Amino acid sequence: MKKYLLDEENIHYGDLILINRDHKLKQDKPVDLVPFSEEFSDVLLERKTMNALHSVLKKIGAKDNIVPVSGYRTKEEQENIFNTSLEEDGEEFTLKYVALPDTSEHQSGYAIDLGLKMDNIDFIRPSFPYYGICQKYREESLKYGFIERYHESKTAITKISKEEWHFRYIGYPHSVIMKENNFCLEEYIDYLKKFKYKENPLEYDGYLISYLPLGVIDELETDDNTLISGNNVDGFILTRKK
Question: Cβ neighbours of residue 101 under 8 Å, at least 6 residues apart?
Fold first, then answer.
């Protein structure tokens, strides 16, 4: 057993943190970043996220068809990408497809842009169509904890245009629950607040999921079957495997 502090600092850490214009990233550089491969050594992700990504690609046999385009970015890198896009593509395009510094999921280490392997890949908008090996990845990756983060129908909520190439790791079963309910992450974080800790947890596929507001409990004892993540808004999400 180990103790997890449910304090103001830890609310900004974990697989399920919400990152957008209203809820900026507060954490420093992720502590456990690993490279995709020797060939793509500059593409980094948080270790658990990277392991899940490789598991999906191996499962669908996509090694020679799908390539990583952009993973973890520092704040300085995000600033440079944003400013460069402003100069080259204009404000309207940039605000649609490039997040402001500290509002980008790429700074967390939990987000990856993927592209169909080809000679020329657009860094901002890589091709990742809804058919073939790309669609196979899209469907299979749900089982490994990934969501397609930005959908056209949710633009009014996310403030980011449709990005079929951008995937965010939030862990299983959250990824599947989101898909089944047609939620974006903003909606899902709000939805989970109905399932109060020790009162009415959400049960799904052998998991119990519950929400604990900041300030109710100072710390919790956890074991290997329990994961706790801040939501970067107002509390914590507990995911326990029964």
Answer: 75, 78, 79, 82, 107
User: For 47-92, what is each residue's pLDDT tens digit?
Assistant: 999 999 999 999 999 978 999 999 999 999 999 999 999 999 899 9
Query: Is the four-CA dihedral 205, 55, 111, 46 of positive or negative sign?
Result: positive
Q: Which of 163, 187, 203, 221 is catalytic?
A: 163
pTM here is 0.95
pLDDT digits (tens, 9 = 90+) for 94-115: 888 888 899 999 999 999 999 9
26, 129: one domain: yes
Residue 24 sits in the same domain as residue 129: yes
Cα distance between residue 174 and residue 184, in whole Å: 11
- Is 221 an annotated catalytic residue? no
